Amino acid sequence: MSTPPFLDLPDTARARRVPTPRGAFACLEAAPPAGVPVRGTALLVPGFTGGKEDFIALLDPLAQRGYRVAAVDQRGQYETPGGADDPAAYDRGTLVADLAAFGDALADGHAGVPVHLVGHSFGGLVARSAVLAAPGRYTSLVLMSTGPAAIQDSEAARLAMLEDALGSHTLGQVWDAMRAMDAEAGILPPSDPRVADYLRTRWLANTPAALLAAARQLRTEPDRTPDLAALIVGGLPALVLSGTRDYAWPVPWQAETARRLGVRHAVVDGAAHSPNAEAPEPTAKELADFWDGTARNADGRPPR
């Protein structure tokens, strides 16, 4: 579970709901300050049990670099309603279609602006599926703390336990049990009581069926690296970004994914599974530098 370092929005950002034909999606949006040219739009997709606030510390640094940024709660995640009690309503195709609709609504009035897609953890699996479903829709892809296929066995076993618990207990009961397990393991809650309260509120606001669907996808994800590699050969810029350690997909797995894709693996010092929240400044720099590098001069040459 990602923990944002703070909750107050910077001056460059706002919270809003974006209406689409597929429903309204809650997002945090930031725009470059006056005088800073817009270089592109970035769509940030959070991971399992996470939310748009996981990217809150990236908003201003990316806006200052000239990027319009939108971090979105996916269907059934925190402040975006689910509306269905069947996990099938949150399958991968649904989430990919949601992301496309959200991006289209966000792009209204910004035609021709490059759109960069960033997926964290489970959000990375969704983002990968999104570019595979519509190869020309996105300008680039960043897989952040995301592996090539299903998560490692130890985490898959924990997810199976969570699925069992969600089938017979309320979200409040599951939350209390998870916090008790953290306490036994010596894991302390956030020191900021506002952040601690936010984590509980976020968990309780999730749609249980959406949690079940995401957990099952994390346990059963196929390796689609060859499919993605074909897109990259065809010209899609991509980046694999991780911390120095990761409990879901070991960092060597992520490095191997980058090798198979033929792309760079950026490692953020001081970060684990959530570089966006644990080391936001160097993470923002890696992202903006990568996006800047995807630009082309009028004669087609990459910028120096």
TrEMBL record:
InterPro entries for this protein: AB_hydrolase_1 (IPR000073), AB_hydrolase_fold (IPR029058), Carboxylesterase_BioH (IPR050228), Epox_hydrolase-like (IPR000639)
UniProt keyword annotations, A-Z: Hydrolase
Keyword Nucleotide-binding attributed: no
Gene3D superfamilies, alphabetized: alpha/beta hydrolase
Claim: Endoplasmic reticulum is one of the keywords in the record: no
Coiled-coil positions: none
Region (Disordered): 272-304
Pfam families assigned: Abhydrolase_6 (PF12697)
GO-annotated molecular function: hydrolase activity
UniProt domain AB hydrolase-1: residue ranges: 43-285
Protein name, per record: Alpha/beta hydrolase
Species assigned in the record: Yinghuangia aomiensis
